[in-house]
Amino acid sequence: MEELKQLSIFSENKPGRLKKITKVLAEEGVNILAINIASSNGFGVLKFIVDKCDLAYQKLKQKGFTVSLNEVLAIELVDKPGGLCEVATILSKKRINIENAYVLILESRKKAFLIVDTNDIEKAKKLLKHENLRFFTAKKNIKRKAK
Amino acid sequence: MFWQKDIEALSRKALEELQLKRLKQTAHRACKNIPFYKERFSKLNIKPNDITSLKDIQRLPFTTREDLRENYPYGMLAVSKEQVVRLHTSSGTTGKPKAIFFSKKDVDRAAELIARCLIMTGIKKDDVLQNMMTYGLFTGALVMHYGAEKVGVLVIPAGPGNTKRQIALMQDFKTTTLHLTPSYALYLASVMGNEGLVPRRDLSLRRAYLGSEPYSEETRDKIEKFFGIDVYNSYGLSEMNGPGVAFECVNKNGMHLWEDNFIMEIIDPDTGKKLPEGEKGELVLTTLCREAMPILRYRTRDIVMIIPGKCKCGRTHRRISRIIGRSDDMIIIRGVNIFPQQIERVLMGIKAVAQNYQIVLEAYDQMTVRVEISKDLFDGRVEHLVNLQNEITEKLRSELLVKPKVELLEPGTLPVSEGKSTRVIDKRTL
């Protein structure tokens, strides 16, 4: 299982914030693969899966954003009815709690991945090791897309 | 109606003679019994005996709030501790509070002044006064309480807050008179409005005394119309007994300042020079009857003007305008006194909070505390941020007794604060 990292950026809920953040990414040539915004009570946390996450993290930090980096799971979803249910069943069986989840679809549109943010990633990885699940591998997928 | 007609309507000449006599006594006592004044007099090379006319007051030293703080706790006391019966403090945001002492006579005199004020507005023994100011170290509620009791009014010591209970008290005891802050009056009106309560129909209110914070004529108008009452302005400050320094009569055109108890001067706050009557400037007050703690030329920091001319009511004590500006640290929300320092103390005790914060006050007494979060402790979890927000709200609520709205901000969002003034943004249009 390859490590996949997610960027989290704290932001107040106000116009122009997403633009400011994505402008930094654009200037650094960072490609966004998936985005999710969780908002609550006047503030939001933006989640990004990008191709060059360490670079993105450094640059955002330099520009003064409140940003953190953490590992998430990216589980391949089979493109048919019940695809998500299968994955959810396994996660449930292993009692893995989902803090946040969203979907990453590659440009090819052939594959979709469920991004799962959980509070104990190491434990989750261990528990899922022998399950019949396929995970996102950044190298293979991003390279292919870059062509 | 008068409480002490002989004094309230004393001729100007006799009033000024009385002032001069009392000023001399006050200066003598202050100089003899308070080392602080003794030192100030000798620095200026003057003696109490140099006072021969009221004009000579301009030669006396000023007293500032910093002076009171530096002489905390007992430094400004002019009598032995045996003679003091009550302490009030006016807490400061910069460390030490100011201690204000009352002898038995002082308590009684302060009550007398309040009695004059209340009678001046037409109150009677069968009135019911709901006192919605803070009881405790703050002078606002207790001094009013004693004065109202002296008149013989039934006093409900409700204190501030708990708006539903306030309304229930008004209904059950047929309250006729309220004593509260203008912002709390507006808040009360909004709550009553939401509940479909019509004061004219459902309550017995006739008048309200509003004080402790500056507000406008438009606000008075709004409050009078909503409640169907007469609103009277009240002016006071803890250092000068609290409420009862100046108060409006039925003509509601400026507050009569009790000149037999205080000498007022209006000065230019920058130069300290006396301004001609009718110009606005800083109000400076000298106590004339205070036993435990005489204060000479106290810089109130309140900007007012003297209203020229005589009042139809027959009182000879001159009137001051409503406060045009007040450079005070204290915020009053829903009748509760809050110091920015309290908020700072709570915030700085929470790890995930960065250095900068801002307090925003908006219409109808809403307080929003805007807090920058710490960059280093951010872990991307919304849940943790929500917990932090709740923690801050709860801690502030238990410290202030008022629940603020808490906003989490990115570090660097707020302007860097150079003084406490920028910490508090008051958007309330009172």
Characterization of the model:
The complex is a heterodimer of chains A (147) and B (430). Chain A contains five helices and six strands. Chain A is of the alpha+beta class and 147 residues long. Chain A has two domains: 4-70, 2-Layer Sandwich (VC0802-like), CATH 3.30.2130.10; 72-146, Alpha-Beta Plaits (2-Layer Sandwich). In chain A, a hairpin with a 2-residue loop joins strand 2 (32-40) and strand 3 (43-50). Chain A is globular and about 40 Å long. Mean pLDDT of chain A is 85; it is low at 143-147. Chain B has helices at 5-8, 12-33, 35-43, 65-70, 104-120, 139-151, 163-173, 182-194, 199-202, 217-227, 340-348, 382-400; strands spanning 84-90, 98-103, 128-131, 154-156, 177-180, 207-210, 230-237, 242-248, 255-257, 262-267, 281-287, 298-304, 306-307, 319-320, 325-326, 331-333, 336-338, 353-362, 366-373, 405-409, 424-426. Chain B has two domains: 1-327, Rossmann fold; 339-426, ANL, C-terminal domain (GMP Synthetase, Chain A, domain 3), CATH 3.30.300.30. Chain B is globular and about 75 Å long. Residues 417-421 of chain B have low confidence and may be disordered. In chain B, helix 11 (340-348) packs antiparallel against helix 12. In chain B, the strands form five sheets. Chain B has a nine-stranded mixed β-sheet, sandwiched between helices. A four-stranded antiparallel β-sheet of chain B has the order 10-11-12-15. The interface between A and B is medium-sized, with 21 and 18 residues.
